[in-house]
Amino acid sequence: MNISRHEQRVLHELALGGSIHHERLENGKIHDVTCFTRDGFILTDCSLGIFQRLLKKRFIRSQNGAPYRVSALGIKSVRAQMNQR
Question: Residue 32 pLDDT more than 60?
């Protein structure tokens, strides 16, 4: 499956322990996302469009309203980076 460079960067940070925090409108739709690294920094590459593509491909998931984290499929799909080797 083809994954863009920005999607790959976000998945890599999530695989290292990051999370995506979301804000919902009153009708329940997500309108704003913020991606945090495991160190607490904000990843600016994560936009609402990238979030929706990762969600559609089932690379990320949330349980019981918690922040979104990488799924098992997302971990299998992420390519190895230098700090993972």
Answer: yes
